Amino acid sequence: MRTLALLLCCSGCAVFMPAPTPMTSLRDELPGGDAKCLVVFLPGAGDKASDFVKYGFIEALRQKSLSVDVVAADATLGYYMRGLFPERVHADVVAPARAKGYQQTWVMGMSMGGMGTLLYSREHAADVNGVLLLAPFLGDRSLSEEIRAAGGLAAWQAPAKGPITSDTYQREVWRWLQGVTANKEPGPNLYLGWGTEDRLGESASLLAAALPEGHVFKVPGGHKWTSWKAVLDQFLADSDFTRSCAR
């Protein structure tokens, strides 16, 4: 899988990556209605909304008897590459779902969808109560090394707040995470998990060090659905999400 950074810089490739309007999604509503919480799933590169059914993510929520409605977005590479991701996922997926009036909204995404989860939550901080990041892409290795060399996220000299562009989004996301984890900027309740053999584990560990106890899950495995499902299972066993969204 190529990194999101490379794909964002590949402007000439966008023509080969469609981003239809409206963005499509898959919905799974609580039988009987009146769910407390909305869960929004965002896929990784090359994945699609139906994969959350295929790999048992929606079934895992239902087995826990949670009071949730679920919407999985077909937020494919094309939306990121064209700079349309936050706009389309909000207008076509999240806002229509939230019109039902939920007590809480949680966004969960893996790999590229993990970065998408952060990009969306940064822009709509007032609307997102919590997130689950599954082996998220958090930027280039050189940036992770810079933050680690500075002594970690809290000690890193972040840039001034600025707009999101293909050149700035990585540093801006880390700047925002620094503010959120220090309670200096509005943001969601952050949970994070990844596999011990995951190639994105190095950057994930930097964020993990800034999160509260019980908000980080490490499981055996690499950058694949079986590892992400194992993280989800641990998250559902004990988290603020399951306590807030219980029936």
CATH class: Alpha Beta
Radius of gyration: 17 Å
Note the main sheet.
7 strands, mixed
User: How many E-type strands?
Assistant: 7
Could you tell me the strand content as a percent range?
A: 15-25%
Poorly predicted runs of 5 or more residues = 1-15
Global morphology? globular
Order of helices and strands: HEEHHEHHEHEHHEHEHH
List the topology elements.
Elements (H helix, E strand, L loop, with lengths): L3 H6 L15 E4 L8 E6 L8 H4 L2 H7 L4 E6 L3 H5 L3 H14 L5 E7 L1 H12 L6 E5 L6 H9 L19 H13 L7 E7 L5 H8 L7 E4 L5 H13 L2 H5 L3
Parallel strand pairs: 2-3, 2-4, 4-5, 5-6, 6-7
Antiparallel strand pairs: 1-3
Question: Would you mind describing this structure in some detail?
Answer:
With 247 residues, this protein is α/β, with parallel strands linked by helices. The protein has a single domain, classed as Alpha/Beta hydrolase fold, catalytic domain (Rossmann fold, 3-Layer(aba) Sandwich). It contains 11 helices and 7 strands. It has helices at residues 4-9, 51-54, 57-63, 77-81, 85-98, 112-123, 141-149, 169-181, 201-208, 225-237, 240-244; strands at residues 25-28, 37-42, 68-73, 104-110, 130-134, 189-195, 216-219. It has a 7-stranded mixed sheet with strand order 1-3-2-4-5-6-7, sandwiched between helices. Helix 6 (112-123) links the parallel strand 4 and strand 5. Helix 5 crosses helix 6 (112-123). The radius of gyration is 17 Å and the shape is globular. Residues 1-15 have low confidence and may be disordered.
